[in-house]
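# step 3/5: fold
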Amino acid sequence: MTQALSIRGPSRTATKLSTVTLTGADERTDVGRLVKLADEHPYLEIGLLYTATPEGRNRYPTLEWLQKASDALPGRCAIHICGSGARQQLRDGALARLVGNAWRVQVNGGVHPDEVQGLAKRVPLLITQHNDKNRALASARLAVNHRLLVDGSGGTGRSPERWARPRTHLQVGFAGGLGPDNIQTELAKIHTVAEGRYWIDLEGKLRTDDWFDVALCERFLQELGKAFRTMEKRA
C-alpha cells in the first residue's frame, strides 16, 4: 500500500475540513494538470471512478488509463468502486495495484455489514455511502479504517435544504450538489453540522457536456479559498 500523505485543511487557522475530493477524471483529462493541482493544494484528493464494464462511458475510464492516472497521483487519489463486478475484483485482490496508489477507496452502493471487514482488509481506508440501504453501518463498529460519506443530494446532484450528520462514531464526509457556484454558502452550512475532521466530495458540477473539466476544478478551488477567508473573518 502507498503511504498516505498528511493532508491538511486549506485554511491556516484551525479547521475541521481536512480533505477535498474532486471526483470523475476521465480519459480526456490532462493528468499533468491534475498533478499540478495536487502539488498546489496539499489538501486535495482526486477521485477516480472504476467499473469492470466501462463500455466507453465518459465517467468510467479503462483500467489501463486509471492505472496510469493513479501512478501519477500516488497517495493523492481515491478509487471509487462502482458495480458488483468491480466490488468482486476488489474482494479477490485483482485491483491490488490500482488501489495500492490510493489513499482511500470508496465502495458505492449498498454494502452489507458482513462485507465491511473483508473490503476494509483490501484498502488503506474504506468509505461507504450513508443512505437508507447502509443505515446499519453508521452504528456498527466493523473496521477501524471505515469512514462514511453522506450524499446530501440523495443522488440528485442538488444540495439539501438542510445538511445533517448521522449519529456515528465514524469520520464523516459530505457530498451533494457542491460546486463553484455554491461552495461559499454550502460549506458554511456543512461546517456547522460537522463534528471533528471531515471531508467534502464533488463530482457533477465539475463536468461540461458530461466530461470532467479541470477549468471548473480550478474555479472551484478559487471559490473555496474565498469561502475560507470569509469563515476566518467571522471566526
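# step 4/5: annotate
The chain has a mean pLDDT of 91.
# step 5/5: archive (pending)
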